[in-house]
Structure formats: structure tokens, C-alpha cells
TrEMBL record:
Membrane-spanning segments: 20-47, 67-87, 94-112, 118-137, 158-175, 181-199
EC identifiers of the protein: 3.4.21.105
Main localization, broad class: membrane
Enzyme class: hydrolase
Gene source species: Halobaculum litoreum
Protein name in the entry: Rhomboid family intramembrane serine protease
Intracellular or extracellular location(s): Membrane
Keywords: Hydrolase, Membrane, Protease, Transmembrane, Transmembrane helix
A Pfam family recorded for this sequence: Rhomboid
GO MF entries: peptidase activity
Length: 202
């Protein structure tokens, strides 16, 4: 019995560990290249407009980080929120979710942030917020709140607005100054929607 439990635990930890390794390796390469040639590092790893000019950065920017502190802070969230998600899904779905939400959050930051000023982005924080949103939405407490709202006759649009306001409040509360607020908010909302749909359930 304990052997089975241990095997299950190691399977659920594997995609999280693989994500952490990818973050560390890609970030290290980003830093080393940046020491030699900063423009080349930006060209290879920073998602910035026009995004179609260097489409590989849609993926590489998710795992590259600006510094050790940036890397460690995101790693903590990935571990805390990623373990329960990984335990409830497959390895492939976990990695697809992290890369997909991270990429979409990064694109949102570049496109929406670009309306104010051209901006570049690196880091997995959009995906980390998506993992948090998934955990928050795909649990019995969220189901219970949904049933209460339905019983009280709360219109769906009011629920959507309330979720949006709550997501914005969480984003502002847990985003350090100068961070990618749009990416965090979009990632969190993507996670909440995916969690309500149980998108990763197997």
C-alpha cells in the first residue's frame, strides 16, 4: 500500500520537477547569453513586439527569468499550486497547460501593454497564476459557492463580474511593483475558467 502511494506521489511530482528544471536551465542560458550579448539574449528569449518576427520566444520566454529572485519566487508558486494540479492530470496535459497559459498570458501582456508602450516579457508567472486559478476553481468549495449563487438566483453575469473583480484584486495583491500585471490577470482568469471546466481532469 505504501509503495503504491509513494509511486503515485512521485508521478504527480515529476511534471512539476521537470518544469522547475526547464525554468532553471533556460534561465541560466538566458543569463549567460546576456552576459556575452544582451541583444542576442533578448532576440532568443524575450517575448516582444512584433511577436511573429521571433515566434520561438512565445515558448522560450515562459521559462526564462530576469534574475534569481524572479526565478525563485515563481518556482515557489509553481510548486505550491502545481503539485495538486499535477496529481489530478497527466504529465502531458500539465506541461501543455503550463506552456499554453504562460504563452497566452505573455502575449496578452505584450499586446495590451503595448497599447501604452512597447514592452517585452519573460517568466512563468502567467502560468503560475493560472495554476493558482485552477486550484481555486476546481475544488469542492468553489462548487459549493456556485450552488449557493444558483440557489439565491444570482444572475450569471453578476457571477462573472464578481469573479473578474476578485481576480483583479488577487492580481494586484500578489504582484510585485513593476511585474507583468496583465499577464498575471490573464493567467489567473485562464486558470479559473479551466478549473471550472475541469479541463485537466482525467
Amino acid at each position: 500500500m505504501s509503495a503504491v502511494r509513494s509511486s503515485t506521489r512521485s508521478r504527480s511530482l515529476r511534471p512539476v520537477a521537470e518544469t522547475l528544471v526547464a525554468m532553471a536551465l533556460v534561465s541560466a542560458v538566458f543569463w549567460v547569453v546576456g552576459l556575452v550579448a544582451r541583444p542576442l539574449a533578448a532576440f532568443l528569449f524575450v517575448l516582444s513586439p512584433p511577436t511573429l518576427a521571433h515566434p520561438w520566444t512565445i515558448a522560450t520566454s515562459v521559462y526564462a527569468h530576469a534574475g534569481v529572485g524572479h526565478l525563485l519566487s515563481n518556482a515557489v508558486v509553481v510548486v505550491v499550486a502545481g503539485v495538486p494540479v499535477a496529481a489530478a492530470t497527466t504529465r502531458l496535459r500539465f506541461h501543455a497547460f503550463v506552456l499554453g497559459t504562460g504563452a497566452l498570458a505573455g502575449l496578452a501582456q505584450v499586446w495590451i501593454g503595448g497599447l501604452v508602450a512597447p514592452t517585452g516579457v519573460v517568466g512563468i508567472s502567467g502560468a503560475a497564476f493560472a495554476l493558482v486559478g485552477y486550484v481555486a476553481a476546481a475544488n469542492p468549495a468553489a462548487d459549493a459557492l456556485g450552488r449557493v449563487a444558483a440557489r439565491l438566483g444570482v444572475p450569471p453575469r453578476v457571477v462573472v463580474v464578481a469573479v473578474g473583480v476578485a481576480a483583479l484584486a488577487v492580481t494586484l495583491a500578489f504582484s510585485p511593483a513593476g511585474s507583468a500585471l496583465v499577464a498575471h490577470l490573464v493567467g489567473l482568469l485562464l486558470g479559473v475558467v479551466a478549473g471550472r471546466l475541469r479541463l485537466l481532469r482525467v
